[in-house]
Structure formats: C-alpha cells, structure tokens
Amino acid sequence: MIIGTGVDIVKNKRIERLINKYGEHFLKKVYTEIEIEYCQAKKKSISSFAARFAAKEAVLKALGTGMRNNNWQEIEIANNELGKPEVLLFNKTAKKAEELKVTSIFISISHEKEYSIAQIIMEGEK
Predict the structure, then answer these.
(1) Which residues contact residue 23 at a Cβ distance below 8 angstroms, ignoring those fewer than 6 apart?
(2) How many Cβ atoms sit within 10 Å of the Cβ of residue 15?
(3) Of 56, 72, 84, 124, whose CB count within 10 A is highest?
(4) How far is Cα 64 from Cα 48, in angstroms, rounded to an integer?
(5) Where residue 65 falls among pLDDT bands split at 50, 70, 90?
(6) Which conformational region is residue 23 in: left (phi greater than 0), alpha (psi within -120 to 50 degrees), or beta?
(7) Is residue 37 a known part of a binding site?
(8) What are the structural domain ranges in the chain?
(9) What is the distance between the alpha carbons of residues 6 and 57, in angstroms, rounded to a whole number?
(10) What is the CA radius of gyration of the chain?
(11) CB-based contact 52:20 (threshold 8 Å)
(12) Distance between CA atoms of 7 and 107, rounded to whole angstroms?
C-alpha cells in the first residue's frame, strides 16, 4: 500500500547561489558527509547537489511533515554499489517513517542543465 508520495523540482542555479553565498555552512547544514563527497566528486557537482536537495524535499512531502520535527541531516541520499540512489532515514525522521509503517522507499532523481527533480514513493502497511 502506498503510504505517501512526494515530488520536488529545484532550479540548479538556486542551489549554486546558496553554495556560493554560504559555502561549507550550507553544505554541512543540508547534506551528510557521504552526500558532500559524492557530489563534489562529480564533474557537474551543482546538479548533483540540487538533485539531492529535491530528493530530501520530496521525502518530507511524502512523510507529510515538511521540515516540522525534521532535520536535513536525517535524510541521506546514498548510492548502492550499482549507482542506484537510495534513501536512508535517521533519528526523528526515521521514527516518523516507522510510525507511518513505511517499509520501502522508492526514489527517482534526474537532472539536466537548469533543473533537478526527484520523486519519492513510500510503501508500507496500514
């Protein structure tokens, strides 16, 4: 059964401006160390950061909470050994997913020159 869905699109230039303006402070507030390392290793790091930002927003929408009682660091978009993105939740955000009886989180992310988009589907039992 679908517990929640979320989709978010972000303009890559917006994330680029935030990174240029706030630098490490912004990166460490929004992204985990694993995400920062992954994105900085990419040739087009801005679109990778933007895609992960959109994914985190989509997760919050799927949970139905927005940022209330959540933290950016509690959502991590990691890649498995084949490069497939996966969602990892921690602390209060993981607890909320558990309360909603989420058993699986499906993610799709994409980016191009100007925009990045992410879709989340949360599946579980009611």
Answers:
(1) none
(2) 23
(3) 56
(4) 25
(5) confident
(6) left
(7) no
(8) 2-124
(9) 8
(10) 14
(11) no
(12) 10
Annotated binding residue at 123?
no
As beta bridge partners, residue 116 has: 10, 111
- What stretches of 64-119 show up as alpha helix (H) in DSSP? 91-99
Is 61 considered catalytic here? yes
Q: Token pair for residue 34?
A: 């694993």
27 vs 34: CA distance, rounded Å: 11
pLDDT (tens digit per residue) in 5-59: 999 999 999 999 999 999 999 999 999 999 999 999 999 999 999 999 999 999 9
CATH topology of domain 2-124: Ribosomal Protein L22; Chain A (3.90.470)
Of the residues 21, 111, 113, 126, only one is catalytic, namely 111
**pLDDT at residue 67 tops 80:** no
Contact status, residue 69 vs residue 90, Cβ threshold 8 Å: no
Q: Is the pLDDT of residue 73 over 90?
A: yes
Q: What is the mean pLDDT of the chain?
A: 95
Is residue 25 flagged as an active site residue?
no
Q: Which of 11, 61, 96, 101 is catalytic?
A: 61
